[in-house]
Amino acid sequence: MGVEIQIEGLTKSFGKQLIWGDVTLTVPAGEICVMLGPSGTGKSVLLKTLIGLLKPDRGSVVIEGTDIATCSERELYEIRKLFGVLFQDGAMFGSMNLYDNVAFPLREHTKKSESEVRDIVMEKMELVGLVGAEDKLPGEISGGMRKRAGLARALVLDPEIVLFDEPDSGLDPVRTAFLNQLIVDLNAQIDATFLIVTHDINTARTVPDNIGLLYHRHLAMFGPREMLLSSEEPVVRQFLNAQRVGPIGMSEEKDADELAAEKDQELPPLPPIPLQLEPTNGQPRRSQRPPGDWCRANGVTPPPGSFEPAMSMTPGA
Ligand SMILES: Nc1ncnc2c1ncn2[C@@H]1O[C@H](COP(=O)(O)OP(=O)(O)OP(=O)(O)O)[C@@H](O)[C@H]1O
């Protein structure tokens, strides 16, 4: 079913460097969330904090009633079993074939027999479309296949929460489109809570139920996909539409002179909101809402052309 993650007042610094402060959001059970943010805003630090690899300075991360920011090592060990993580590079052991890589968590953390391990590994290989590649070494396969193998390994202990750290990094647009479809199909099948960190705007626009944006040491906004894609809030609008005009500059915030210089520049209209990617089998996911549902419920007029199939033919959709 997936479990909820309640994040409240979360603050993290390294020495004097504040990474983000007072981050509060609830990642809803079973839904797909994407976390965006310019480079260096601490998205990976957030993922590491959620699995207890980093301790926050303040705040709480409550999962099934346990605050992982303050719990004991033993409780943390139990909570971690709920997580599957797809690391950026797949984090495969280079000297092990894909079968042994995927089997690794089962052999480490369970007492399953080799025949049970085999059944589970093959089931996960099938889920990610890698049957037949079990004997390959990670170095012998493409980046896209490595991600799939990493995903099979992340799924092997049947996680309730799956964290994806830039699943599309280093992938071409076609491979990214296939991976996005796989993510949506998997969510439909295993019903776990998915949190994806990405830089890919097309992924953010078409895959998730909810989007968050980290910017300038805080969570600028978090909410339903349609809320952020129809938002006129300058940072959200600039980031989700990959524009140069707006408060975000080349390295961080623009200074007052830069902002004054673009004061009279007219912003292009918001592009139409694309349809959300649906599972291949046509069966809606449990958390999927009809197109335009959030806009209607909140009296928001979406940009013209929104939710029209032709308008949703963005690359990769
Ligand atoms: N263990 C650490 N010790 C000190 N500083 C760290 C540590 N881990 C991360 N940082 C700093 O935290 C900041 C945020 O890093 P992080 O990798 O989370 O950013 P990001 O948003 O994921 O970036 P990108 O999109 O480029 O991957 C960076 O300035 C980084 O140098």
TrEMBL record:
PANTHER family recorded for this chain? Answer: INTERMEMBRANE PHOSPHOLIPID TRANSPORT SYSTEM ATP-BINDING PROTEIN MLAF (PTHR43023:SF6), PROTEIN TRIGALACTOSYLDIACYLGLYCEROL 3, CHLOROPLASTIC (PTHR43023)
Domain ABC transporter, by residue range, is 5-241
Q: Which domain of life is it from?
A: Bacteria
Give the protein's recorded name: ABC transporter ATP-binding protein
What is a GO molecular function of this protein?
ATP binding
Q: Which InterPro entries match?
A: AAA+_ATPase, ABC_transporter-like_ATP-bd, ABC_transporter-like_CS, P-loop_NTPase
- Classification via SUPFAM superfamilies: P-loop containing nucleoside triphosphate hydrolases (SSF52540)
Write out the transmembrane intervals: none
Q: List keywords of the entry alphabetically.
A: ATP-binding, Nucleotide-binding, Transport
